[in-house]
Amino acid sequence: MSALLAIAAVLLDAALGEPHRWHPLVGFGRWAQGWERLLNPTSGKHASSALRLRGVLAVAMAAGPWVLFVAVVSFAAWNPASAAMRYFGYAIAIVALYFALGNQSLRDHALSVHRALSEGDLTRARTKVGFIVSRDTGQMDARAIAAAAVESVLENGNDAVFGALFWFLVAGAPGVVLYRLANTLDAMWGYRTPRYLYFGWAAARLDDVLNFVPARLTALTYALIGHTGTALRCWRQQAGAWESPNAGPVMASGAGALGVALGGGAYYHGQWEERPPLGTGSPPDAASIPAALRLVRLGVALWITVLIIMEGIAHA
């Protein structure tokens, strides 16, 4: 049944894409900002341990009630006294995974960058890529734009697709809700800035823990679909040098699978940051963006196929 529910959510995401109005994560972001304003002091000196504890409390208060709510509803629905309750449980699971997935949204954003680059419109390409990366885009040339888009596709392939699928398959609707909310909190608070260096520690560590296994499965998926030997070699040799313990394997393997060179320096919030090299070969161009999307698309098909086979064996 998990395979059918996952397929339904993936198809729903492909058909509808990301909701443009009333997206639950937008409401959750406002909810989380309220807790951050309450618990993260903006003035005075505070011990790092106290700020970390405040961050732990903020994560618990921001995400905990929603995960608990979905867990209670799911438990009631998956232990039904009637067929109607059982189907209600199925619907809850599908909707939870649909809202956690960002495959179609990632595809739409990346292809808008690809179209702008293909048409030679660098101004529009810079604007479009700015929607999916956190680095400064104002002075990017065509290669830098393509590289940023490819890196975003590879990394978000884990964060917005395979990680969500993994936690749905492992822990159902509560698991995928916890994963997506933790990922959102990390995106909001997981920065090494004076305001979030200690307060955002809990959100960043929770995201690291929840992504540890999915990131490596994503890296393996990219390797199996692309240039396998090169991807595995880049993963082994380059991932450890990347600052993020989970983005490193994903992006090194993905770059190797595509046969392109990623990484290198970039501006973030006005500051130049040197980053280790990833992958091998020539820098990416506009054509590398749909190639990266193909890795994700075929990866989803591979996961669903394996899941169907495993469920068939289990019920044989």
How would you sum up this structure, described in words?
It is a single chain. Strand 2 (266-268) and strand 3 form a beta hairpin. The chain is built from eleven helices and four strands. The chain starts with a helix and ends with a helix. The mean pLDDT is 90. The strands form two sheets. The protein has a two-stranded antiparallel ribbon. 45% of the residues are buried. Helix 1 (2-16) packs across helix 4, helix 3 packs antiparallel against helix 4 (83-100) and helix 8 packs parallel to helix 10 (247-258). The protein is mainly alpha-helical. It has one domain.
Largest sheet geometry: 2 strands, antiparallel
Distance between the termini: 14 Å
Structural class by secondary-structure content: mainly alpha
Mean pLDDT: 90
What is the count of β-strands?
A: 4
Pick out the low-confidence regions.
Answer: none
The secondary-structure element order is HHHHHHHHHHEEEEH
Domain module tally: 1
